[in-house]
Design a protein that fits this description.
alpha/beta, Rossmann fold, 7-stranded mixed sheet, globular
Length: 301
């Protein structure tokens, strides 16, 4: 597999500068992924759907951009027993944590797997390196998604299979409202100095929304199909709340400045818990609407 430069090539580019390239955020992102799997009424594993729908061949190479904790790689191995080389890419600042994020047994059993520290907008691979490329809910963390799309086109072989997923503008509106209410609560806490002007994280999905994807992707790839999930995250009890609450943690690192964890937990207790508890009491459940899609593509270069 052809590599260009060192394993850290690209890590100081746009995505890393904004998102923080902090290994600690992997826990929050993994919790968000788990919330979709556990709390939606009709869970969809986008990796499984993309792999089977695209007809990924055993023995072919696969690049997973924004691999985070490696749950997608695990799916490919567990459900399909994929035999070809898989490379996971993320901007986590500590390569050791990136390696250990994926289940240890998978790392030991699959010696063809590699994890690389890099950014989607400057991939450290030669042209036509991969037969398949997946970018699942990761390109909206890049300031210029067009750069990442051009890189995906470059490193994927002509005619190669590509899966790119993102969220709609109305996805998880309660989640966004809670982010704003958390910021409002923190601004009022005079006991913690330096947070009176705390900034709410940007709405990442608006940078590369479903509307943006529908417009941009045909400029780089042939669109074979689009599979959409219209669902909701449902909370009915305390266990469900903890799953949802941990998913909110993925937003903490994107506040400016980042609030201390004790202040964050207090904000959750004061402005999130009462709302969810009241809705469960009144309606029997709390519901946060989900609108996401995966675009199944082929490389037309």
């Amino acid at each position: 597999m052809e590599r260009v430069g060192g394993s850290d090539r690209g890590v100081d580019t746009l995505a890393a500068q904004e998102y923080g390239a902090d290994a600690g955020i992997l826990f929050g992102l993994n919790s968000r992924w788990n919330a979709y799997k556990k709390l939606t009424e009709n869970p969809i594993d986008f990796y499984s759907v993309a792999y089977s729908s695209l007809g990924v061949e055993h023995g072919s190479s696969l690049l997973d951009i924004g691999c985070a904790s490696g749950s997608g790689i695990e799916t490919v191995y567990r459900e399909f027993d994929h035999t070809g080389p898989i490379v996971g890419v993320d901007i986590v600042s500590d390569p050791f944590l990136l390696q250990t994020a994926v289940n240890d047994t998978l790392i030991k059993a699959k010696n063809e797997m590699e994890l690389v520290l890099a950014s989607a907008d400057e991939l450290p691979f030669g042209d036509n390196t991969f037969d398949n490329t997946f970018a699942m809910f990761s390109l909206y963390h890049v300031l210029q998604p067009e750069r990442a799309l051009a890189e995906i086109q470059r490193v994927t072989v002509p005619g190669g299979k590509i899966a790119i997923s993102t969220s709609g503008e109305g996805n998880k509106q309660w989640h966004r409202l809670f982010e704003e209410r958390i910021a409002g609560y923190i601004r009022e806490q005079t006991i913690f100095s330096g947070y009176s002007d705390i900034e709410v994280p940007p709405i990442f999905a608006n940078r590369f929304s479903l509307t943006d994807a529908a417009k941009l992707l045909p400029e780089y790839f042939e669109v074979e199909d689009v599979l959409t999930q219209n669902d909701a995250l449902i909370i009915r009890d305390l266990d469900d709340f903890f799953t949802y609450g941990f998913s909110l943690l993925s937003a903490r690192a994107n506040y400016k400045p980042v609030p201390p964890i004790e202040l964050w937990n207090k904000a959750i207790e004061e402005v999130v818990v009462p709302v969810i508890a009241a809705l469960i009491e009144e309606q029997g459940r709390f519901s946060d609407l989900v609108h996401r899609s995966v675009f199944l593509l082929s490389n037309k270069k």
